Amino acid sequence: MDEQKTNCEENDSEPTDDNTTAKQLVSSDGESKVIPAADESGANAASSNTSSESVRACALCNCVERSLHGQRELRHFGPFSERPTLKPSASPLPQPGNDDLSSIGFSDSPCLTALLDDSGCWVHYWCAVWSEGVKQTEDEELENVDKAVISGTQRICAYCKRLGATIQCHAEGCSRFYHFPCSAASGSFQSMKQLVLLCLEHIDKAEELGEESWCAVCDSAGELTDLLFCTGCGLHYHAACLEIGATPIQRAGWQCPECKVCQTCQPGEDSKMLVCDACDKGYHTFCLQPAMDSLPTDPWKCRRCRVCMVCGVRGLVLPGSAQWFDNYTVCEGCQHHRSSVCCVCSKAANPSVALQCCSMCH
What we know:
Structural class: alpha+beta
Strand content: 5-15%
Distance between the termini: 10 Å
Order of helices and strands: EEEEHEHEEHEEHEEEEHHEEEEH
Number of strands: 17
Largest sheet: 3 strands, antiparallel
């Protein structure tokens, strides 16, 4: 029986930070080492090989530098002149999260000696500058980042319920804190000019900011909960005005049409840009592995957003050459099994017996 391809005429995979970019490890003696980055299924095993090494990740959101959530670059802060005396601990630093929203932050209070040592710490720029208590000097240096990291180890994010949250709702009396990616994913309002966050309960106060809360398309505040925040320019757009969704994965690290860049070459040649139908992130056709010769006519999903509804396997776990079916909801293995098993008796077909195919569910 012939197998019908759906949305997968080209086999492709994004050469992302997880599978093509080498990660730098900083050992206890200060020397940098480079190892191949593990993919999602590898669970960054390199970080647990030895307690003297740790993958360079943000001390607040626990994501690596090339994250898809718009935190900008990792910056080193410190060394700090005043630092609390921290007891040595054998507990390893939690493994850095991938770009799944479920892995942002820390499930347990992280080892402070690993997050904040004598040399300082690594924090994404946006994670730092939005944090409660962090101040920017006239020469654009950030102060009190170390205090934010320490306080974050005791603060639970109101969205993901994990530690490392340092961005507080601006409404008076509100005690909600968020990670930077979670603030967008939760649907909170963010003002880049004033570095103000308003949680969903207090989002109506965004109207007091005037044009800051207006949609760049319709020039009105409209439905505030429908606004998407661009991590590039800081403008807001109603999802309805752009005729796109407003799911948490789309909101986190969202870029408007003017700011959207390829998540692989960031930024690069502005041509042949594919936009994922699920997360709205952009990729060049020639940055995929293998590269695609042309733009597909059907909706397309990046590897991070492909999940088989039959076996649950995720796209990043499979090789880039793997084919997908039914709008990227059925992996190659499950499709092969489905096409060789009778839907009535669930038995494999005898090679000499031809299976009848339904034109609707094939």
